[in-house]
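Protein: FAD-binding PCMH-type domain-containing protein
Species: Pseudopithomyces chartarum
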Amino acid sequence: MRFTQFVSLCALATEALTLTTDSGFEPSNFNVTEALIANGVDPDFIPDAQALSRRSSLGACKVACSSLKTIYGGEKLIAKGSTGYTNFTGAYWSAQQNSVRPSCVFTPTKSLDVSTAILISRLTQCPFAVKGGGHAAFAGSSSIEGGITIALQNLKQVKPSADRKTVDVGPGNRWLDVYQALEPHGLNVVGGRIFSVGVPGLILGGGISFFSNKHGWACDNVESYEVVTASGKIINVSYTSYPDLYWALRGGGNNFGVVTNFKLDAYPLGLMWGGGRVYQNTSFAAVLDAIYKFATVGSSTDLEAAQIVSFGYAPGFGQLAAAQLEYGKPIENASIFDDFNVIPYVQSTTGIQLQSNITITLNGDVPDGARETYWDVSFKVDRGLFTYLVNTFYELLPDIVDAEGIMPTISIQAITEGQLTGMQKKGGNALGLDPSGGPYFIMNMGSMWTNSADDKRVLKFHSEVNKRVKAEAKKRGLDNDFIYQNYASQFEDVFSSYGKSNQKKLVSISKKYDPAQVFQKLQPGYFKLKGGAPNPNMP
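Structure follows.
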């Protein structure tokens, strides 16, 4: 979603200075200026309220960026027009995000810096975005037109505890950074499967891992979060300290604050087995049989295993399937994979290796900067529906097969009984998945292409496949509301899919810790708690 206009300064800056609230967390007499002074900001560097009230939102962002430059001497600010700015805005995963131009980029080195940036945004009413790894597909997810982009790239701590039970991980890391730092210690955390994905987005959206069948999703394996709240207060959120906020952060996305440290549960890991296998279309039926059996039988008998199956099209190669197979121990072709082992493949990268190597291989050699889209839908497990969704994908594929640089895929992966059990730890998460209804499957569609002139038909293709699969699942009594945030398009409403009760609870928690709704209004990007889809209108 492109944000071409900002939050209005209809409310005068004097109202931003002293806001009356009913929140017990944020005092009713909260004063932004006083909070900035408490952060150590020189009062002479704080913008004047009366002057701000006469500015447009563009002017407000100019003041905000100037203030950050004055406070930090330009050391942590990347100014528009500089070489650093060009390099930064061009380094997102998708071309859509690369097209966004913030007024400035702020690169904090500690939590207090983030606090000050949030308070400056709140004082000036200049909107902001927060960037971790920048691996979302649509514009505005972790970038903002004309506002402040807070880039967490310098917060890259990876520090195991003395007892080896937890690891402090900074939000500026990508998962390759984390795994390579932990492998010499023989440790692992429940994290991403692609090396270039950032830490914060994956965890806050849920986070499926190679080890989720055994431990739950990434969000279910966080001991505590260090969070910068809307008032600038920095708090340590755990199951015992702020149990409601802890629950909300497990799937609640960017709606509750900026996480500046994740204390993750640590598990022993040396070498493991895994990689990918590629199959021709003559083996599609056997591949679908194998993933179905894994979801319904195999996954509960061996919690070390993980599987994803993808179907796609590549120019020059035609229709192909790929299975990503992983096993948490260094055992070749464990019996859990017997149904896959008998299927002839044309290429394989499977073997005993480090987890970091597997994430590099799965990432592939495709460069960043292409146009990207992701969509997803979940449903109850059914072998016949697998065939329907793959057939529907290929039936409609001719509509886009000649788009420049097109590489479309459709993936199916199980939300296993083991994953659902892991989600119940420490009060459960916010995702709304009922363990008694599982196992489930997620269908994730994605495409990359290079020409913006093809946007409309590529998005239409994905929308139509999604629509047909949802309708067929409902017809068969297999439909499920859940939309996985990390795979969702800007045209999907994530938080209503968590169920009315969970959505209502998330909104209530947001108002408790953020009564001014800073993270709903001043941070408008990505999926908001009650705003529906980020972009409800297809182009």
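Remarks: Residues 85 and 431 are 36 Å apart (CA to CA).
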